[in-house]
Design brief:
The chain has 198 residues and is mainly α. It has helices at 33-36, 45-73, 77-88, 96-103, 107-119, 141-161, 168-184; strands at 93-95, 123-128, 131-139. The chain is globular, with a radius of gyration of 27 Å.
Length: 198
């Protein structure tokens, strides 16, 4: 039997000596929480790789689409989404609260964006007859024309940046994954802290 290297075993002649201290590590434990008590659940190597890839891809995609829309229509991606919502709604009009929920943003942020779209002449606001505090946003003919001119270039940018790089199976998986994540972040409990309720 080969002898252990010096210092690998505790001194047997000193039974009361403390057990050797394990070497320090800069890496947090990745054991499941059932084995670690109630500490943070650190990401393992694969989770860290997936998370960083997701952050990089979504940040770059948002920037790519924002720059394309600013160049072609003088508006950010978020504003384009509002015009699309209104163009698909009956009579090209939607309650402001519904628009905030669809866009997953706060009502104050939506109000600021609609004010900017009003200034451009692309959207108008109308009071809601059944709710004195409610308002509709309405897409104007000018706003519809801007959307009609801008949509082809924007759709092509989305195709090139995302769908052209994925197989049909990958596209399906991506859609299913994002639906699961979004559903988990939208609890149906009363009083849930969701952007469009703030």
């Amino acid at each position: 039997m080969r002898s252990a290297p010096a210092g690998a075993l505790p001194d047997q002649s000193a039974p009361d000596a403390p057990a050797p201290t394990p070497p320090p590590t800069d890496r947090p434990s990745t054991e499941p929480p059932t084995q670690r008590g109630h500490g943070p659940r650190w990401l393992d190597d694969e989770q860290q790789r997936v998370w960083q890839a997701y952050l990089s891809a979504t940040t770059l995609l948002d920037d790519h689409l924002d720059r394309q829309l600013q160049r072609d229509a003088g508006m950010p991606h978020l504003y384009y989404g509002f015009l699309v919502q209104l163009s698909e709604a009956p009579r090209r009009r939607l309650r402001m609260t519904e628009m905030a929920r669809n866009a997953k943003i706060t009502r104050s942020r939506l109000s600021h964006a609609v004010a900017r779209l009003e200034k451009s002449g692309w959207v108008t606001r109308e009071d809601c007859p059944s709710d004195r505090r409610g308002q509709f946003a309405v897409l104007t003919d000018q706003g519809y024309e801007v959307l009609r001119r801008t949509a082809p270039g924007h759709v092509e940018a989305v195709q090139q940046a995302l769908f052209d790089r994925l197989t049909p199976g990958q596209q399906k998986s991506l859609g299913e994954i994002m639906e699961i994540v979004a559903e988990g972040l939208q609890p149906k409990d009363a009083g849930a802290d969701l952007p469009w309720l703030r």
